[in-house]
Amino acid sequence: MSAAHPIQQAWLSTGQTGAKNYDEFPDETEITRIIEANPASVLGVEMPAHTPEAVASGLAFEQALPYAAERLAALKEAGRFASFGDVAVAYRISGGAEPVAYGVFCMVDTSEISSSADEPGKVIRNEDVFIEKVKQRNELNQKLRHLLSPVLLLQSSRGDELHAAIAEAIAKAGDPVASDVDEAGRTHEIWAIGGEDGVALAALAGDGDLIVADGNHRSLAAQVGELDRFLAVVTTPQSVTIRPYHRLVAGLPGSAAQLVQQIGQIGATVTEVDGQPETPAEGGTVVLYGSGRTWEISFGDTEGTVIDRLDHTRVEQEVFNGLLGWDAGDKRITYVGGDYPASWLAEQVDAGKADLAILIAPVTVDDFIDVNLQRLKMPRKSTWFVPKARAGLTISELPKR
Question: How far from 157 is each of 122, 203, 375, CA to CA, in Å?
């Protein structure tokens, strides 16, 4: 039986509501600038404490939450969303550096979420989470009674069939309901697929193992909020690429050079190199940049699972936990996704906004799937999938309580 279903009450964008997902911003002031320049963007609903008026008034998240509901109601009243009942929403992303991507917006059974090998379910959640983010996402869901950002699920069992089925549905559907261009110049388009075709498309999307590629916090918030179903975009392995996920570190107890020396003392191989930092081409080497200096770090071989050998794990366990005594959720660590190049991280360090940049090679799609099918758990913030589903193109209204 499939875990996915058409959206009972969908609201599809009529234009200008598209936005990055709420957790894609290492610099929170960027959120405010985007909302100010794009007042119809759903980002103003998702991040109510970062709207220009909330920032000017110094409102915390809980204080700004009522204004999120008002903002969403105003967008709907202004005709920024159109109502559709019982539809699967075909999704295409094109025009970027990556191949054309396909997905389908649908509702997925929350009861199918599995976060460990002994927990049954088709939806495999694979990363540790930050509890405060889950709490806020649940509060937003409950206040709005709408789901705004989808969980990105990778169909690992029937990906080829789904890829072809979505392309075929789009070819038959005519003009898209909405089209939106993101910051990288990619075009995001959606089509409402109703009736038996919509049911069949959703059923195919939810038939097999579904790996959470993006949205671990959103999926857990659905469980915390006791939602029967959550909004998802189910995509295919050939539709996604994994880019690097880096770290910026502030508040070091000493200098970057002192930390690097300590890393060498625990047995890692440390090599200082000339020039600005670059993302490593493959795993096994981590690049550190601080105080105008660049180092290549190799932690060496270790026993254990593929997870134990990941550079993200070694940095978290040996540098953050071991040498600094910090948890991975420490506010002094900023996780920077692959939309931001190595040069941007170096600029943040040079400007004094961080003490250290840590650049880590991307995980491969094949390794990511293998890890999840083995029911192992990825380190926090270790996979940055592109292209990402755009928030604000398809939202789901929750049933009345």
Answer: 10, 13, 15
Q: Does one domain contain both 298 and 167?
A: no
Q: Which structural domain range is residue 334 located in?
A: 245-361
What is the rounded distance in angstroms from the CA atom of residue 346 to the CA atom of residue 290? 8
How far, in Å, are 260, 309, 391 from residue 97 at the CA level?
Answer: 35, 30, 20
Q: How many domains does the chain have?
A: 2
Which H or E run includes 39?
none
- 257 with 227, same domain? no
Distance CA 76, CA 83 (A): 9
In degrees and rounded to multiples of 5, residue 374 shows phi and psi of -80, -5
pLDDT tens digits for range 293-332:
999 999 988 888 888 889 999 999 999 999 999 998 899 9
Q: CA-CA distance, 345 to 289, in Å (whole number)?
A: 9
Distance CA 29, CA 11 (A): 28
What's this model's pTM, rounded to 2 decimal places? 0.85
